[in-house]
Amino acid sequence: MGASGQMRQVLSAPPKSRPPLCAGRRGKHPMQLFHNASMRRLFAALCLGSALAAPAFATPPVAAPARPVPAIPATPLRTPQPGQVQPLAPGTRPAPKIPTLTLTPAIPQVHQVTYLSNGFIEVAHAVITVTPQERPNLRPLVAQVAAAVLAARPTLSEVDLSVYDRGSYAGFGGPLPLLTASVPRERLGAFLAWTTQRTPFDRVWVNPGNLPVYLQPDRVRETVPVPVAVSSQETALERQARKQGGLLGGLLYRSKFRYVPLAALTFDDAPHPMYEPLLLDMLRRSGVKATFFVIGRNAAAYPYFIRDMTQQGHEVGNHTYHHVRLPPLPLNEAVNEMRWASDIVQKLTGKPVRYFRPPGGEYTPQTLQAARSLGLNTVFWTDDPGDFQNPGDAVLESRLHRNLRPGGVVLLHDNAPEMLNVLQGFLRVARQEGYALTTVGGLPK
Ligand SMILES: [Zn+2]
């Protein structure tokens, strides 16, 4: 649907009286970096188009707008800087400092080694950068780094490695690594055998080096939203879906059953090479299954974590391929973002993807309809404690408990350090209060 069709949808929406669900929520997402205030207002209007309107690919109605649409000044195309595409627990408060490990003797290619504990196990993540001349000999290098890190800190259960091109390295959200590996201490021997004898090792990924341009994060475009009449009201569908619960028109806010002490536990932005094994370990110890809304590009680069999720009984959902906000994108790009993420998840899990969470919770009637056409239901939440804003453990814990409701959906982020600090306590208290936590799929609709 073109710009004029979207305008008509918004303008023809009936009068509403409540603030939008898709703008101005508490717990704003770090991807808001992409948008200034006017873009957010525009998006608020985009959210308003009746989601009950014509399907995304249908011909728009021919009726002319009832009143003139205010002109919106043109804004140039935006290309996110490398590192902005992927959130890494930033926020309104500085993230707690993550400890680093110093190797002696130093290995020149090691950029940084960070490590963290979940109270039970410790995991390290080593970032390695290499020159083009060093690229043909990555295996001996990663063998050396893995062995050195595990030797330097005997309490580590696992070291995960990300090898990047030095010239283009721009953090976790920049261009994808050249090679990644997950090396549990007890599997170091098998990993070393992979590096020397090329025996199979299932926890390694080598960038094929031939990924098409669209799979490179720094090529994602965030484009100007189409001009629409600005309003700040929610659609009838949103209001109804929130009020009555259950699946309605492809939207899910909570279960329809408010008296069953069952809530869904969800984690956005997975997988991350240091946090994922810590989180999966904690959930395994608690016997809790959750839904992970994963970023497609990172699922591709760390496929073994997606397989771990499935093997441990968790559900894997779609959080777009590049973690990009959908409303400003042309519809075909928004559809591709959803499709590519579903494709990689399905390839890794062997299961069709059923649930989708748009970055920032932002969508339009068109993206909602497109998600449905891809077999995806769009999932929101009832309990968002703002873990990525680093509010402090006590505040985070109290928000989590205060908002937990039967039939609710809890939103957390897999790469928020304070989440790791409070999760164990939250799971314990939820259990003591009689709650069972489950996947989105496990929530009665
Ligand atoms: Zn996200």
Automatic annotation (TrEMBL):
A GO term, aspect molecular function: hydrolase activity, acting on carbon-nitrogen (but not peptide) bonds
Keyword Metal-binding: yes
Pfam families, per database record: Polysacc_deac_1
GO biological process: carbohydrate metabolic process
Keywords, alphabetical: Hydrolase, Metal-binding
Domain NodB homology: 261-438
Region (Disordered): 1-26
Keyword Mitochondrion in annotation: no
UniProt protein name: Oligosaccharide deacetylase, putative
Taxonomic lineage from the root: Bacteria, Thermotogati, Deinococcota, Deinococci, Deinococcales
